[in-house]
Amino acid sequence: MLKLTTAMLSAATLLGSCGNNSGNSSGSNGALRSSNAEKVYVAPGEYDEFYAFMSGGYSGNLTVYGLPSGRMFKEIPVFSQFPTTGYGYSEETKPMLNTSFGMVPWDDAHHPDISQTEGILDGRWVFINGNNTPRIARISLKTFETEEIIEVPNSAGNHSSSFITENTEYVVAGTRFSVPVPQADLPINEYKGKFKGALSFISVDKETGRMNIKFQILMPGFNYDLSHPGRGKSHGWFFFTTYNTEEANSLLEVNASQNDKDFIAAINWKKIEAYVNNGGGTKMVANYAHNVYDESTHTATSTMEKEVLTVNPADIPGAIYFLPTPKSPHGCDVDPSGEYIIGNGKLSADLTVHSFTKMLDAIENEKFDGDAYGIPILNYEAILAGSVKSGGLGPLHTEFDNQGNAYTTFFISSEVVKWKIGTWEVIDRKPTFYSVGHLMIPGGNSRKPFGKYVVAMNKITKDRYLPTGPELEHSAQLYDITGEKMELIYDFPTHGEPHYAAAIPADMIRDKSQKIYRLDENNHPYAITSPDQAKVTRNGNEVHVYMSMIRSHFTPDNIEGIKVGDKVYFHITNHEQDFDVPHGFAMIGANNSELLIMPGQTKTLTWEPKKVGVWPFYCTDFCSALHQEMQGYIRVSPKSSSLDLTWTLDDE
Amino acid sequence: MIKKVFGLAALSLMLLTSCGGKEEAKKNTPYKSPKKEEVKVEAPKEVSKTEEAKKPEEVKPSQRIALDNKGVGPIKSLTLDPEINQEMATKGAEVYKKMCTACHKPTKKFIGPAPKGILERRSPEWVMNMILDPEGMIKEDPLAKELLVEFNGSPMANQHLTKEDARAVLEYFRTL
How many CA atoms lie within 13 A of B95 on its CB side? Predict the structure, then answer.
């Protein structure tokens, strides 16, 4: 009897414990759930099929996830200081965050895009935009570190960025806010006609990836919201959605929603490139930071650029056209063939699909409906390929699979809608939880999508996870799209607010991932390559400590002769040459962060001792069985002390 | 009877924690792979054996002569010329200075043992394997295991020397 009761009790427990995990995912039964579990389960020790790079939104960084497991592998610091590694705190990386406004230690990162060759992901770099203080960053997919950040002048709210052309010729950055160009002290209500929207084409060196602003097109004062490159047949063109063609400067919520149609701006960048290569365009005085990290010196330098080449659309007729697109379009997406340009009118229920072929025909036959600031407006009916009558509300973004289908998110009605390119018929719709923004299919904005999963990035999390106070991480949702119908198979939290993401099959980059920095390639001016070079030098109140670290000690680990008021630079080289053996460095009272130093790398932390005494430092990364022994002391004497500098390890 | 009841209760508890546990693990480990931690905390267990290793009548592992032991790793057989190759030894000294001196002083015990006289106690293959694959040696060579204990559980770092560099370092050891 007792036995029976317990058995029943345990059955109830079973039900209770596992049943809770399903939360409120609607309409799934037990059998389905278990097959979904298999789809996302990556067994211990096994690898995920895809790398996903999710923008960190207001964290300013980029996070790396595995798909389908939803496991987070790394947070790559980009626009924000990152005390975990010392990025933006170490002397070597502070220049990465320099701008024309001085150091800006934060940004709002939006749209990552992976480099391409011939329209196919090539896995060399990820680019991402800083929205707030306009910047574009390039991240190496060999080291998974930020290598370069370029500020974008004449821009404000760098939102229609950072999207690349199909051979990574350019990374494109468009301004959301139009502003006076050059900046000027003007009454705000003189916006209309006086403000400009700068669209910047930043060239990318084929070998090094180095960025350089090739030209900026100074467009009418609309808001340039999102963009995507033409590909295949439309390679050479770039498309930008606009809103606020009303050019309102206040209460945009109402005043920028007056026109029935705004525009997609179609830019023939190849034509403009040829124009500037032949000496076209106007050089404008500017001031913007260009920050480059050198892997051999482990050091970034910031250079202020003083000039930018601008192009006035009126000077190059035939290069820019407006495609009328209903209801304040947000997302601007181009299908894998390059034929269809999809505008997602966010105040509409329908999607507008323009035909590239019809667009060329309308241009050739001058099927114009007037112009805006001299830029021809093409006839809407003449270029329309079709519209998707979705029945959803608030379409935002579209991605594509490799079977001729498109997937569009609907923010207001919280759903992903699958539809057929060409017939425009809706095939399936699945709810999201809740209020989805972007979605992402690996390679979904290239000529060759890998159509296995859709990741929906939701703006509202609410009841999906255990509550953690008022602030919740945003929720991503994974859909299996291999069948006719989509299947929601997994939820996972993301860090910051991932606006957009880009993913790539893991086997395209996994084996290129760097394991260590070679000591014999370390050209840091303060590196020491053997511990007998360890020393401490003084120049006035500036003290330089040349230190090395290996499991599990620092050389030197006892330093005397430091004084209150000194500025101490710890230049620390990790002498390990083995994968995954970083060492940390933390100094009591340092007003910055720790350093996390990879094998073969040198980093520098400054410390300004304020109190007399003997102060410890230690390694923060559990490096070996004797990690707790990896420590040292610094004796700090009064400012008036005449104690000489000494440095020792084991009294030598 | 009572035993069985407990068995069932334990089973249900296990089921409970297994469901809950899985979820916990997913949420709690965004930055560090648990695998790495595991590897790193393994060594202290070895440290506790130190007592055993210090029995007065026993010869310390570092002093033991084991010329027949070739160790485990990429080097299966190596015959040394009777003459020391000075050029190679000079190169070896350079490599040694950069890659090894953080833990090994040439003639004095430091973090690890001194290489002076090492070939009186170890075969050339064993020395090469210890340089080229210390992880494998610590796992599979009993002497390397004992040495880890003798040297406070401080693991020999794999500095990823090429075979050629490791061979040069070995030649340098002959000059000490």
Answer: 23
Longest dimension (CA), chain B: 80
How large is the average pLDDT for residues B129-145?
95
Other beta carbons within 10 angstroms of residue A295's beta carbon come to 17
- A381-392 pLDDT, tens digit per residue, is 999 999 999 878
Residues of B in contact with A552 (CB under 8 A): 154
Which pLDDT does position B56 carry in this prediction?
56
Contact call for residues A601 and A293 (beta carbons, < 8 A):
no
pLDDT in tens, A357-377: 999 999 999 999 999 999 999
Return the residue in B160, B165, B169 with the most chain A beta carbons within 10 A, the one to mutate for interface testing. Answer: B160
Structure tokens at A122: 């090539």
What pLDDT is recorded for position A30?
A: 56
Q: Which two tokens stand for residue A313?
A: 């659309």
Beta carbons of B155 and A627 less than 8 angstroms apart: no
Secondary structure class of A627 (helix, strand, coil): helix
Q: Which residues of A touch B103 (CB under 8 A)?
A: 550-551
Among A32-41, A51-60, A624-633, where is mean pLDDT lowest? A32-41
- Report yes or no: A627 at the B interface, CB cutoff 8 Å: yes
Residue B43 token pair: 């060594």
Q: What is the DSSP letter of A82?
A: B
Tens-place pLDDT, residues A448-497: 999 999 999 999 999 999 999 999 999 999 999 999 999 999 999 999 99
Q: By mean pLDDT, which of A28-32, A425-429, A520-524, B21-25 is the weakest? A: B21-25
Cα A448–chain centre separation: 21
Q: Let me know if domain A50-512 sits in CATH 2.130.10.10.
A: yes
All residues of chain A having their beta carbon less than 8 Å from the beta carbon of residue B26 are 71
pTM: 0.87
H or E segment to which residue B163 belongs: helix B163-175
Which residue, among A176, A177, A147, A151, has the nearest Cα to A161 in the 3D structure?
A176
In this complex, do B1 and A2 lie within 8 Å of one another by their Cβ atoms?
yes
Q: Is the pLDDT of residue B9 over 70?
A: no
A291-320 confidence digits (pLDDT tens):
999 999 999 999 999 999 999 999 999 999
Residues of chain B with Cβ-Cβ distance to A13 below 8 Å are 12-13, 15-16
Q: In what order do the strands lie in the sheet with A329-334?
A: A329-334, A340-345, A350-355, A384-389
CB contact under 8 A, A13 and B160: no
Token duo for residue B169:
């370092």
Cα B5 from Cα A10, distance rounded (Å): 11
* Residue range B55-175 in CATH 1.10.760.10: yes
Tokens, residue A320:
């820019």
Nearest to A159 by CA among A137, A179, A130: A130
Sequence letter at residue B4: K
Q: Which of A21, A577, A624 sits opposite B155 (nearest CB)?
A: A624
Domain locations in chain A as residue ranges:
50-512, 522-648
Average pLDDT, chain A: 94
The CATH architecture that domain A522-648 belongs to is Sandwich (2.60)
